[in-house]
Design a protein that fits this description.
Blueprint lengths: L1 H12 L12 H8 L3 H13 L3 E4 L3 E4 L9 E2 L2 E2 H22 L2 H16 L3 H18 L3 H9 L1 H15 L2 H17 L2 H23 L19
Antiparallel strand pairs: 1-2, 3-4
Helix pairs in contact: 1-3, 4-6, 4-9, 4-10, 5-6, 5-9, 6-7, 6-8, 9-10
Length: 230
Amino acid sequence: MEAVLTHLREAIERGDYAVGDKLPSEAELCRRLEVSRPVLREALRALQTMGLTASRTGKGTFVISSGPVEDPTFGDYAASDLLEVRRHIEIPVAGYAALRRSAEDLDHLSHLLERMERETDTTAWVAMDTLFHLAVAQAARNPVFRRVIEEIRDALARQSAFLNELGGRREQSNREHRAIVEALADGSEHDAVGAMSHHLERVETTLTSIVRPAAADDRTTAPTEGGQQA
């Protein structure tokens, strides 16, 4: 999927598909790139998240920009807005959770983390990722915190899927989640705040690297329209 996305993204950026152009149909792109429809659809969704294309019901996918937006949107919220709120909510929440968590909270978080570390399906992992952050908020024993996370839950899931599919974040995120759980188990407010801060910093770094890659030659090698590697 990353290779298909890179191929289409670079075609748009160099003008093969100009702003206003309609992309070939899904069937045609699948044939040219020799990929399955689910893989292609994931790549097309990523293009929309980056602000390069827009889907028009019954008409197809159209190019709306020659370069990715610096602040992609996940559901109803821009990435920068999500990150800003998460820094102000989830970092102190982790500290409160370290001081207020119960044995049941720790059992729930540990069990959830173990399932995430075994999970190989991205969709299932993403669902558990949002549950993990809700569980940390629950452990803080303030219902307002949990309500805020509930409000942005869909956007968090969309962002998580985007980062895992394009940034390979799953294993790294599992390690960061484990550090958070260990800090909660130790009852260390300082370590919990530090672990959550690190987690959110890595989310932002990965997102930035996807949307604004340092150089074109650092990108994933993409398939040509004959299915061979470029």
